[in-house]
């Protein structure tokens, strides 16, 4: 698992691992979601901590350090990410995924870094992801650490949204533009994952396919269920469509609508479709009936709903409202 980098990252991996002392103490790995940035950072951490890295610079997977890391117990490694909220009774059931990295997490990191590393000459590695999840207080606390970096400490910072980061943080990092797969690399990799319809997934993921590993979801099967509903435009049956779209939760439902609408908009402007090229005929028919002014308002509404999607109390009702607006787009 710690050696799971993607084929399109191999050259960059070797470049960074061989940089040695020339490597900046804080690397900001940025790029769109779904291209494998976190896997790259994890492999880098493993390699830096490994006692006997392989010739290709990957961690050996067998030494004491690698064992500690795979058990989540390495004394010289810290991973910081939004934590789940615990229930008051201490049970782990129904925890809500937190959105933010909090200042207490960075304070704890600061205390930890004030201690010396476990190994006398060893590295310490700090992995923070996604960096944009830090609130302002946490960002400022991290900034202090980056300004006066502790000895022999490598910060690996992962971000999907560099534009959301404080400029002061950016100025303290070396920014690494993470490689995206070529179409050929992406398709080859998807085929090796034995997903159904690699070609379709390649398009639907917008060329960022690695999330198929994290999500327990057959995107193509689900698509076959929702697309007939959305294809009906103003004649769509909301009562039938709602539950199908909500199967994977509100966030995914909104994403489906956003991608579908973008392609309708592209069809309207005679541009190549991005996510559903196999639906060209349907999307062109919908585009011909589209009320463009309403589309813009609807897209803004979708963006607003997306921000609250995880906390929404009545998702069925919210989605019904959205689908009603969707029908009205087509006159
Ligand atoms: Zn090792």
UniProtKB/TrEMBL annotation:
<dbReference type="InterPro" id="IPR004622">
    <property type="entry name" value="DNA_pol_HolB"/>
</dbReference>
<dbReference type="GO" id="GO:0008408">
    <property type="term" value="F:3'-5' exonuclease activity"/>
</dbReference>
<keyword id="KW-0548">Nucleotidyltransferase</keyword>
<dbReference type="InterPro" id="IPR050238">
    <property type="entry name" value="DNA_Rep/Repair_Clamp_Loader"/>
</dbReference>
<dbReference type="GO" id="GO:0009360">
    <property type="term" value="C:DNA polymerase III complex"/>
</dbReference>
<protein>
    <recommendedName>
        <fullName>DNA polymerase III subunit delta'</fullName>
        <ecNumber>2.7.7.7</ecNumber>
    </recommendedName>
</protein>
<keyword id="KW-0235">DNA replication</keyword>
<dbReference type="GO" id="GO:0003677">
    <property type="term" value="F:DNA binding"/>
</dbReference>
<dbReference type="Pfam" id="PF09115">
    <property type="entry name" value="DNApol3-delta_C"/>
</dbReference>
<dbReference type="Pfam" id="PF13177">
    <property type="entry name" value="DNA_pol3_delta2"/>
</dbReference>
<feature type="region of interest" description="Disordered">
    <location>
        <begin position="77"/>
        <end position="96"/>
    </location>
</feature>
<dbReference type="InterPro" id="IPR027417">
    <property type="entry name" value="P-loop_NTPase"/>
</dbReference>
<dbReference type="InterPro" id="IPR015199">
    <property type="entry name" value="DNA_pol_III_delta_C"/>
</dbReference>
<keyword id="KW-0808">Transferase</keyword>
<dbReference type="GO" id="GO:0006261">
    <property type="term" value="P:DNA-templated DNA replication"/>
</dbReference>
<dbReference type="GO" id="GO:0003887">
    <property type="term" value="F:DNA-directed DNA polymerase activity"/>
</dbReference>
<keyword id="KW-0239">DNA-directed DNA polymerase</keyword>
<feature type="domain" description="DNA polymerase III delta subunit C-terminal">
    <location>
        <begin position="237"/>
        <end position="326"/>
    </location>
</feature>
